[in-house]
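Amino Acid Chain and Its Fold in Token Form
===========================================
Structure side: the spatial fold of the chain, written down as a series of whole-number tokens.
Position: the record begins directly beneath this header, with no further notes in between.
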Amino acid sequence: MDEERILTEVGTNEWQVVVFLLGDQPYAINVDKTREILRWTGVRPVPQSHPAMLGITTVRGEVIPLVDLRTYLGIKPNVPLEQSKVIVAEFNQMKLGFVVDGVERIYRINSEELDASLTGGFLGEDALYVIKREGRNILLLDYERIVQMVNPSLAKELTPDTVRLKESGQSVVDPDRYKILVAEDSPLIRRLIQEALAEGGFHNVEMVSHGKAAWDRLADEEDRFDLVITDIEMPKMDGLTLTKRIKEHQRLKDIPVVVFSSIMADDIKRKAVSAGADGQITKPEINSLVELVCKLLNEKRSGR
């Protein structure tokens, strides 16, 4: 897979997805979430686990869980388990393997190609977007949600520490004087960010579901924002493109931008820095996010 990777420049609104098959349906996962593609690795069962949790395996000396996406989505496999492929993925500070029928290729896509019109309705809660390519509808799944459903204990990591958040908010004079814009495509994460900021005393918060909506709000000269929080992987405009546009704009360039994403590999961190991000936090560190927001607002207030 490494040989197929295509370098994408920051600000082009382009990224890459690995296309794979579950039954006859093509699906996709962001290349930046993908570490390698393996032949069937074997598995050691884990008792009392979710039906889609096949067990654990060892990859290069590291023990990782294996999740069968076919079982999770109720899709009949087209190949025996021993002929399956394993997509080793890393996000939200964890590594695991997704078991699939086969892997096709890498596509370079533009964020504007992501169609979210059927999300939550006909597609259900596990599919975020449809990518239309070569006469096919390729589904991009919500992998963070799938992992939380298979292993509910992970949801605890997204639970805000109210005491810690209140202490963070006390470091800022009158938090409600600041207006914060959040660009995040996941309804779950939007709610968590809003609740965490509220615990810190920040109630003047506006939520949008993609980078283009955030840019349109920032471009409105009749309004102003004191800080922006953005995801990376979003439709219409990705977070790195949004960050770069903010930092290149004469009126907006001094607004602090925090990148809050499940994808924080070293190359993504470098891209965020090159785009001009003032800070980076990896999901699910919701408490650290609020602490960084307080730090950046205090620095802005003091003129640093």
